[in-house]
Design brief:
single chain, 123 residues, alpha+beta, Alpha-Beta Plaits, 4-stranded antiparallel beta sheet, two-stranded antiparallel sheet, 3 helices, 6 strands
Length: 123
């Protein structure tokens, strides 16, 4: 079963990390994640992963009274921002929780686990 892992970070930490992507802390976190990613590739459970751009440069499209409108910025002001996503393909939800627990233990930031709907659109 495939799961989408949504990595969140506090907005202030996001701003600090993007201002100095070569800090020791940022490089150490990236190295830990790369090792973990290689492990999941080796077990065949890794599908893909990407970091996301800063929320300030996002665009939100929504239906409004005047029609469909595109506005600059995120949907809402948040204390935490969606910073990255990964897709894994594992045998069970328990395995997804096991994997994410290891990430959260090291990085200390929350990760949401969301099942990806299968071909039957019910999962």
């Amino acid at each position: 079963m495939k799961y989408l892992l949504l990595g969140y970070t506090p907005a202030a930490a996001w701003d600090a990390a993007t201002a100095d992507t070569h800090s020791e802390e940022a490089l150490a976190a990236f190295a830990v994640y790369q090792r973990f990613e290689r492990e999941l590739i080796a077990t065949g459970e890794f599908v893909g992963s990407e970091g996301l751009g800063h929320p300030a440069v996002s665009i939100t499209v929504r239906k409004a009274a005047e029609g469909v409108v595109a506005t600059d910025g995120p949907f809402a002001e948040l204390k935490e921002v969606l910073a990255s996503f990964a897709v894994i393909d594992v045998a069970s939800q328990e395995r997804a929780v096991e994997i994410v627990s290891r990430i959260v233990e090291v990085l200390g930031e929350p990760v949401e686990i969301r099942p990806i709907m299968g071909e039957d659109l019910t999962t």
